[in-house]
Design goal:
The complex is a heterodimer of chains A (299) and B (311).
Chain A (H helix, E strand, L loop, with lengths): L22 H11 L3 H9 L2 H13 L2 H7 L11 H22 L1 H9 L3 H5 L5 H19 L1 H15 L3 H4 L1 H29 L2 H26 L9 H12 L8 H6 L9 H22 L8
Helix pairs in contact in A: 1-8, 3-9, 5-11, 6-11, 6-12, 8-9, 8-11, 9-11, 11-12, 11-13, 11-15, 13-15
Chain B lengths: L4 E10 L2 E11 L3 E5 L6 H8 L7 E6 L2 E2 L4 H7 E4 L11 H11 L4 H14 L15 H13 L5 E5 L7 H16 L4 E5 L3 H7 L2 E6 L2 E7 H10 E7 L2 H11 L2 E6 L2 E5 L6 H10 L3 E7 L4 H10 L8
Parallel strand pairs in B: 3-8, 3-9, 6-7, 7-8
Antiparallel strand pairs in B: 1-2, 1-4, 4-5, 9-10, 11-13, 11-14, 12-13
Helix pairs in contact in B: 3-4, 4-5
Classes of the chains: A mainly alpha (299), B alpha/beta (311).
C-alpha cells in the first residue's frame, strides 16, 4: 500500500510472536498513563516511605550516624515483622489511591467507545485483553509495593548478616505474596467496576465506596448485633487480617494492628478472610466475563 | 477459484432466538455482498465469522480454516470495518490505527509505516494526527476503513460502509472499495441495506431472510445474461424479420405489433440484428437489453418463501 502507488497491497513481512500481542495494549496504555504529570509526581512521592524505611534500617546499623544525629538506638523503630507489615500497609494505601486514579481509565474508554470489536477481531483473546490491562496497573503497583519492600528486606539482611535473611524469609514472602494479593484484588476491582459503569469518574468513586461502605457496614453490624463478626464485611480489615497472618504477627496492639484496628479477640477466622477475598475476585471475574464482549446480546 | 467462505449447517442462537438457521453454502467471489431486511441475520453472520458469537451447531470455514478451531489464525487474515462508531475518542487517529495494526501482528515500525500509508490511501493523510473524536462522520468512516486495511488482511468485512455518508463521500468510499477489490489481493464481504452499493461493488450476492438464505446471485453471470436478453420494437414486415431471426438460430418470442423478445446465441451480436433488419427493410425503432436489477432479484427473494437454501 505504498503512498506513491496509492493502491492496496497485503502485508507479507514478518509478524510478532503470538504471545507478545497482549503487551501491545499495555504498552499504549502505559504511554498514555505516564503523560500525566500528576501521576508521575504521585509515583515519585510514593518513594518517600521506602526511602524513610531504608534510612531507619541504615541508622540501625550505623552507630556513628546515630551519634552524629544524637538519636538513641531505642528511639528507632525496631526492624521486625511489624515494621515490614506497617510498610506494606502504607504503600498498600498508596497503591489503592493509584488504582483509584488510573484503573478505571483502562477499560471504560474502550467500552464507552465500542472499541472492543476492533480489539477482539484481531488475534487477541478476551483473557489476553484483561491481562494486558491488568499489567498496566501491576507494573507501577509493583514498583510501589513489593519491589522496594524486597529491596528493604535485602538491605536489612545484608547489613545484619548472620543468617538474619534466611531466619526471617517469611517476611520477604509476606511482602511479595501480600503485595500481589492486594495488587490483584485492586486491579480486578478497578477493571470490573469500570466495565460495569463504563464511566471513569463513577468507577473511581465506586472503588472508594466499596472499601469505605464495606467498613461502615461492618461497623454497623458490629454495633447493632454486639459482635465482631461484622469485621468480615470490611475489606480493609479482611486484607489486614490476611497480611497479619502472613507476617505471623501476634494478636496484640502493634503499629500494624493499630493501622487496621486489629485487636486481640477481634480476629475473624483466617479461612473466612480468604473466602471473602476469593468471593470478591470471583465476582469481579464474572462481571468482567459478562461485560467484556465484542457484542452484547440483548435477550 | 477455491471457496473463501464455506457455511456448513451454521446455526446461531442468541438468547432464546435462533438467528441463523442451518446455513449451507460456499462463496468464492472476490467481493461478496450480504443483503437482507433488518433482522435477517446479516450482522450476526459477520459477527459469527469474526468469532464474536459461537455457533450453536454446524460451523463455517474461511480460506479452509474452521472458525471454531482456528479462530486466532483466521483473525490475522481478517480486517473488519464495523457499522457503528468504534474507536477511542481521545486518541490520535494514527496512534489508534498503529495500535490495531500491531495487535494484528505487525512489528511497531512496519505498523507505523503502513498506518501512514493507509491514511493517505483513504484520503486522511493531513488529518491523521488529529484526535478521532474531532473527526466528522465521513472521516470516521474512512478512519475505520484505514484500521481495517492497515495490517494487510486477506478478507475484509465491511458492515454498512457508506452508512451516514453524504453523496460525495459515498462515491469516494465506493471508489475506494472498488479499487481495493481490483487489486486482486483481497476478498471483500460487504453487508449493506443499500442495493446500489452492493450492485456497484460486488460480484456475488447472498440474500438473507429470517436467518435463512433467500437467494444467491452471481451478479457477473446475471450481467452477462442480461446482455444477451433483448427486447426489440420494429417497423416493417414482421413475419419476414421473424423468419430471419429464426435462421440466425436465436430463441425468440413474437409479441405482435412488431415487438420481439429474444436471446442472442453465442456468436450473434446486436450489429447482426441491425444488418439483418437493413437487409429485410425493417426498421429497429427500439432495442433494450433486459435490466433485471438487483432490486428485482431482491424483491423476488423477499416474496418467495425462504429455502433453507444452499449456495
Amino acid at each position: 500500500m505504498a503512498v506513491y502507488k496509492r493502491n492496496y497491497k497485503p502485508y507479507e513481512g514478518i509478524l510478532t510472536p503470538n504471545w507478545s500481542r497482549f503487551l501491545v495494549p499495555a504498552r499504549y496504555a502505559l504511554e498514555t498513563l505516564f503523560q500525566s504529570r500528576l501521576l508521575i509526581a504521585f509515583l515519585v512521592g510514593s518513594c518517600m516511605m521506602p526511602i524513610f524505611a531504608g534510612a531507619v534500617i541504615y541508622l540501625h546499623h550505623n552507630l556513628s550516624a546515630l551519634t552524629m544525629l544524637q538519636i538513641r538506638p531505642e528511639h528507632l523503630l525496631p526492624i521486625d515483622g511489624d515494621f515490614f507489615a506497617a510498610y506494606l500497609s502504607f504503600q498498600g494505601a498508596l497503591a489503592f489511591l493509584f488504582t483509584a486514579y488510573a484503573g478505571p481509565g483502562l477499560i471504560s474508554p474502550d467500552l464507552s467507545n465500542s472499541a472492543l470489536p476492533l480489539y477482539l477481531c484481531r488475534p487477541i483473546s478476551r483473557t489476553e485483553y484483561v491481562l494486558s490491562k491488568m499489567a498496566v496497573l501491576c507494573i507501577p503497583l509493583s514498583c510501589i509495593t513489593w519491589i522496594p519492600g524486597l529491596f528493604l528486606f535485602s538491605m536489612q539482611a545484608g547489613l545484619q548478616g548472620q543468617g538474619w535473611g534466611w531466619d526471617h524469609i517469611h517476611w520477604a514472602w509476606a511482602l511479595f505474596a501480600g503485595s500481589w494479593l492486594w495488587i490483584g484484588m485492586l486491579s480486578l476491582l478497578a477493571m470490573s467496576l469500570s466495565a460495569w459503569v463504563r464511566w471513569k469518574l463513577a468507577a473511581s468513586a465506586l472503588l472508594f465506596g466499596v472499601f469505605f461502605i464495606s467498613s461502615a457496614l461492618g461497623a454497623m453490624v458490629n454495633e447493632a448485633l454486639d459482635t465482631r463478626a461484622g469485621n468480615i464485611l470490611s475489606l480493609g480489615y479482611v486484607i489486614g487480617m490476611i497480611w497479619a497472618k502472613m507476617f505471623q504477627l501476634p494478636p496484640r496492639s502493634t503499629l500494624f494492628g493499630d493501622m487496621f484496628n486489629i485487636r486481640r479477640g477481634d480476629e475473624v477466622p483466617e479461612y473466612m478472610a480468604w473466602l471473602v477475598v476469593a468471593m470478591l475476585c470471583g465476582a469481579c471475574i464474572l462481571l468482567l466475563n459478562r461485560r467484556l464482549r465484542a457484542r452484547e446480546v440483548v435477550s | 477459484m477455491p471457496p473463501v467462505i464455506e457455511l456448513d449447517n451454521l446455526e446461531v442462537r442468541l438468547g432464546a432466538r435462533t438467528i441463523l438457521k442451518k446455513l449451507n453454502g460456499s462463496l468464492s467471489g472476490r467481493a461478496i455482498g450480504l443483503l437482507g431486511p433488518n433482522g435477517a441475520g446479516k450482522s450476526t453472520l459477520i459477527n459469527t465469522l469474526l468469532g464474536f458469537f459461537a455457533p450453536l451447531s454446524g460451523t463455517a470455514r474461511i480460506f479452509g480454516k474452521d472458525i471454531r478451531t482456528d479462530a486466532r489464525a483466521l483473525r490475522r487474515l481478517i480486517g473488519y470495518m464495523p457499522e457503528n462508531d468504534s474507536f477511542i475518542a481521545d486518541m490520535t487517529a494514527v496512534r489508534f490505527v498503529r495500535m490495531m495494526a500491531e495487535l494484528s501482528g505487525l512489528p511497531p515500525d512496519e505498523a507505523l509505516e503502513r498506518t501512514h500509508e493507509a491514511f493517505y490511501y483513504v484520503g486522511l493523510g493531513e488529518a491523521r494526527y488529529r484526535n478521532l473524536g474531532t473527526y466528522s462522520l465521513g472521516m470516521k468512516q474512512m478512519a475505520k476503513l484505514a484500521q481495517a486495511i492497515a495490517h494487510g488482511p486477506k478478507l475484509l468485512f465491511l458492515d454498512e460502509p457508506t452508512n451516514g455518508l453524504d453523496p460525495a463521500a459515498r462515491v469516494r468510499m465506493i471508489k475506494l472499495i472498488r479499487e481495493i477489490r481490483e487489486t486482486r489481493d483481497i476478498h471483500l464481504m460487504i453487508s449493506s441495506h443499500l442495493l446500489r452499493d452492493v450492485e456497484e461493488c460486488c460480484e456475488e450476492v447472498l440474500i438473507l431472510k429470517d436467518g435463512q438464505i433467500a437467494a444467491y446471485c452471481d451478479l457477473e453471470k446475471e450481467r452477462r445474461s442480461n446482455l444477451n436478453f433483448i427486447e426489440l420494437e420494429t417497423m416493417g414486415i414482421e413475419s419476414v424479420f421473424a423468419n430471419a431471426i429464426e435462421r440466425l438460430g436465436c430463441d425468440f418470442a413474437d409479441l405482435g405489433q412488431g415487438r420481439f423478445k429474444m436471446v442472442l446465441t453465442d456468436g450473434v451480436t446486436v450489429s447482426d440484428l441491425y444488418r439483418l433488419a437493413a437487409e429485410k427493410d425493417v426498421q429497429i425503432r427500439r432495442l433494450n437489453h433486459r435490466h433485471d436489477s438487483l432490486e428485482h432479484i431482491f424483491l423476488k427473494a423477499m416474496e418467495a418463501p425462504a429455502n433453507h437454501g444452499s449456495v
